[in-house]
Amino acid sequence: IMPNTPVAVGKGTILYCRNDLVEDAVLAEVLHDLRFAGVLDPLEETLIDAACTVSGCGPAYAYMFLDALAAGAVACGVPREKALRYAAATMEGAAQMFLTTGQHPDALKDAVCSPGGSTIEGVKVLEAQDFRDTVKEALAAAYRRNLELGRWKALPNTIKTGDNDMKNSKSESYAQAGVDITAGYRAVELMKAHIA
Length: 196
Prior knowledge:
It is built from nine helices and two strands, in the order βαβαααααααα. It is mostly helical. It has a two-stranded parallel sheet with strand order 1-2.
């Protein structure tokens, strides 16, 4: 199971896979327990590292874009608090448009861009700055790092003694490798708190 931090508000994206040892009844119970945490989606284990570049890392990138939208509005004279709320609501609305209509993002973008209008001028700037390729490279970098992290498989036997021991043992093992896994634990704790 791989949750992301928005599980804290019931809007998480939770990827999961199962093996032959997990019975249908057990899986159904787990999915039922997690239903309020967000979207649950089964995925082949071989794709988890790639998918986490969107679901796991994506919130950080979305917050960066939200902040950039707001900063741009502030530069145009909008009060910061309002700019942040407008940016967040706009991102939420745009995402819901895609999820509701199923239209390709390019088609939805084109529907906003009236000929000779203000939106197309901004789109031209983003395209000139390689916005799409920059985002793609960020995800590629995250994917490469996921593959590197996946190579660390040695976990001490003490992980069986309890959750705290498991967390501490894992953290020590990964810390020796220069890996910070606290964000993953934080997401799991947020998910537990949300469904409690």
